[in-house]
Amino acid sequence: MQKKFYQPEAETMPVNEIKKLQEFKLIRQVRYVYENVEYYRNLMDEKGVKPEDITCLQDISKLPFLSKNDLREAYPYGMLATDLNNCVRIHSTSGTTGKRVVAFYTQNDVDMWEECCARAIVAAGGDAGDVVQVAYGYGLFTGGAGLHGGSHKVGCLTLPMSSGNTNRQIQFMMDLNATFLCCTPSYAAYIGESLKEKGYKPEDNKLKAGIFGAEPWTEEMRKDIEKSLGIKAYDIYGLTESSGPGVAFECCEQNGMHINEDHFYAEIIDPDTGEVLPEGSKGELVFTSLDKEAFPLIRYRTRDITVLSREKCSCGRTFIRMHKPMGRSDDMMIIRGVNVFPSQIEAVLLNNGYAPNYQILVDRVNNTDTFEIRVEMLPEDFSDTPKVITKKEKKLQAAMKEMLGINPVIRLAAPKSIARSEGKAVRVIDNRKKMGINT
Ligand code: DLL
Q1: Please, how many CA atoms are within 13 Å of residue 96, restricted to the half-sphere of its CB?
Q2: Strands 300-309 and 321-322
Q3: Which atom of ligand 1 lies at the shortest distance from residue 235's CA?
Q4: Cβ(182)–Cβ(238) under 8 Å?
Q5: Where in the chain is the domain with CATH 3.30.300.30?
Q6: DSSP letters along 18-44, please?
Q7: Could you give the residue range(s) of every CATH 3.40.50.12780 domain in the chain?
Q8: What is the CA angle 28-29-34, rounded to 5?
Q9: Taking CB atoms and a 6 Å cutoff, what residues make up the pocket around ligand 1?
Q10: What gap in Å lies between CA 297 and CA 40, rounded to an integer?
Q11: Residue 212 Cα, ligand 1 centroid: separation in angstroms?
Q12: How far apart are CA 428 and CA 36, in angstroms?
């Protein structure tokens, strides 16, 4: 029979036991960090809080937050909590500005991380008989290594493709009968598009599921990918700072991602005030690692905006679920005073029959924000007259206005004119940033 859980004892633990376990581990992790990480000890001292003040889960709100800036400031070894000799791996964020964040792992950290990814694969219906094509980037990025390790733990046959070289991806997928695809959702959409161009129908491949994450994607995009590849598409969430993918993953219900609560404690806060919000509120996700040895994080502000729900899940897992991130508190765009998330734009495009190939261009001209969305027209529309194209642009503009509350300029571009991504898609070009305007 197909295995439903990778680690059933942990994944179906009664909620009161999860909380007891988290409390025990939180107290232990805070003491460990205070003793071993000078940077965080200083933050705690500045706030006047000592490890002894943390006696229950609620006490976590006494602790200072950590931000990406703190991690950059502490680069490279300032957050390391163990001797470098005990570490076996380094990964790093792909940050384009400032210093990168470098995360360290002991062997126990790697095992815990890979087990989290194994849970995700099994939750998506995987078992030792599967052939897992890992098309996330390998290297400093955590996507490739995380899913690769998870696939090994489950006992799957692992295809370490890394991202890119789409022709070879397709050849191996077809010839070696891959049953799972792991990559960014934008790359999955591109692979689906390329398969179609090569004349393959969705039923021609052996894929049954995909595990997609590392960037925001919508329900509409999920449907699109599921249709083009003939699979079930599951979401997976994580960040380099917390080890990588697998902090949270979707189950067969495809209705929010279960957070691996035996290893991570999650809070939702008001991003402006830092106040902890009650369950069900929308706010910024904050994580505390509970087991990490090399690079523990206490109250790390992810900047991801989401909602947590403890509602019972019919899959049998008891871990709290997080809604798909609805954007980031820091890459939310403010255009002419209106908050705009790229995910809203993507939802409108897909609902109107367009493919998820688009670019958002924001600029400031004569003190006014300009806002343009470039979208590829469908190949069958390419022969339309300019008049018909203008009509379609107007229709899409009205749909955007209804969703966003402001009017973007819509430009329908030729099919294939927007660069495809093999990793995380760059959707937004905000030239206001170059002018030093705080967007
Ligand atoms: O993206 C780790 C990862 C790899 C996750 C593969 C899932 C699959 P970073 O490069 O450090 O790590 O980027 C972390 O990416 O704070 C979110 O803003 C975003 N992100 C990650 N997963 C999702 C997701 C990896 N499923 C940042 N949905 C996070 C939306 C996501 N955003």
Answers
A1: 2
A2: antiparallel
A3: 26
A4: no
A5: 333-435
A6: HHHHHHHHHHHHHHHHHHH-HHHHHHH
A7: 1-329
A8: 105
A9: 93-94, 136, 142-143, 213-216, 235-240, 244-245, 302, 304, 324-325, 328
A10: 9
A11: 10
A12: 40
**Model pLDDT for residues 389-433, shown as the tens digit of each residue:** 999 999 999 999 998 888 999 999 999 999 888 888 888 999 987
Most confident of 210-224, 290-304, 338-352: 290-304
Under 8 Å between Cβ of 119 and 111: no
Mutate to test the pocket of ligand 1, among 237, 258, 300, 428 (most ligand atoms within 8 A of CB): 237
CATH architecture assignment, domain 1-329? 3-Layer(aba) Sandwich (3.40)
pTM: predicted TM-score of the whole model, two decimal places:
0.87
Out of 72, 96, 215, 222, give the residue to mutate to test ligand 1, the one with the largest number of ligand atoms within 8 Å of its CB.
215
Instruction: Tell me which residue has its CA closest to atom 12 in ligand 1.
Output: 239
pLDDT for 42 equals 98
> Does the 333-435 domain belong in CATH 3.30.300.30?
yes
Q: Whose CA is nearest to atom 27 of ligand 1?
A: 239
Q: In terms of Cα–Cα distance, which of 381, 353, 355, 372 is closest to 410? A: 372
CA dihedral 123, 148, 216, 261 (to 10 degrees): 50
Tally Cβ neighbours within 10 Å of residue 434.
9
CB 182 within 8 A of CB 136: yes
Is the pLDDT confidence value at 439 over 60?
A: no
Answer whether 135's CB lies under 8 Å from 187's CB. yes
* H or E element in which residue 291 lies: none
Task: Kindly state the tokens that stand for 4.
Answer: 């439903």
